[in-house]
């Protein structure tokens, strides 16, 4: 998302909201019958997007496959064991070959340099579906979820609004967003996005270099002037002070399985609980988000399955935001 202007980010989120509305049945308190859905135009007709995934995925893969179908196109899943890549063929040659036959590449890679190399050698657009450093499509879905939630907006929805009208995305009021946990790909995209959209970030992670944003990420934060709206502490209580939204991610990202024991030790005290947020002075109406998949180390069941949790709305919104990107 550091590559996009705030205008481009807002346009994508607004387009995702539009696609969601025209694709799903209306539910209106005023009209008992559901009017016919306008539907989406088949803008990907006869087009194929390659899903080049070297890591597991539930949400990102399903979002991509189902949204390509709704747009009249096809998503071609290419996992580790499906193609010659890594065994008989280089990433460079693979990029050129796939892009000669498909109209886009949506790639989930290990090291971030792999997606840079793909983008360099592909002759069609490449979208990052998660890398060691970034997870942009997750943060687009999170933004849509925030815009849809009345608590976060400055204008409340009109319950009498006609279902025939496509509603506009409501603007977000400036938010205080706390992130408690590992400095991983999802947080990194938050760092280069939320401050530019006028939100404050308060982050808590253990005081160890490996749990703080790496240099290539922090360089982008500085380049975009985002650091002014970021507080970074080792104290989770300090991070959640005044928070409207509390966010976390797994403590053990894909590829870090060998560090599991050490990480669980280092993150003791960083679990999101009602007690932590009460003691730290979060806003009484605070909400919770997590990209999933989730382990109970980082957030307890009371919060995760409780009324503050927006996790499954976030997961639903992966689809509409990825669909907007594909279009
Ligand atoms: N949040 C997310 O990217 O989930 P998946 O790994 O299941 O795609
Ligand atoms: N940080 C996590 C995100 C999973 C969607 C990981 O990279 O595994």
UniProtKB/TrEMBL annotation:
EC number(s) given by UniProt? 2.1.3.3
Keywords for this protein? Transferase
- Give the PROSITE patterns listed for this entry: CARBAMOYLTRANSFERASE
Task: Name the GO cellular-component terms.
Answer: mitochondrion
List residues of the Aspartate/ornithine carbamoyltransferase carbamoyl-P binding domain: 1-148
Q: Which InterPro entries match?
A: Asp/Orn_carbamoyltranf_P-bd (IPR006132), Asp/Orn_carbamoylTrfase (IPR006130), Asp/Orn_carbamoylTrfase_sf (IPR036901), Asp_carbamoyltransf_Asp/Orn-bd (IPR006131), Orn/put_carbamltrans (IPR002292)
Which biological process annotations from GO are given for this protein? citrulline biosynthetic process; L-arginine biosynthetic process via ornithine
Establish whether keyword Transferase is in the entry: yes
Q: Name one GO molecular function term.
A: ornithine carbamoyltransferase activity
Domain Aspartate/ornithine carbamoyltransferase Asp/Orn-binding: residue ranges? 175-326
- Membrane-crossing segments per the record: none
Enzyme class (EC, first level)? transferase
Q: Which family does it belong to?
A: Belongs to the aspartate/ornithine carbamoyltransferase superfamily. OTCase family.
Q: What is this protein called?
A: ornithine carbamoyltransferase
The organism encoding this protein is Fibroporia radiculosa
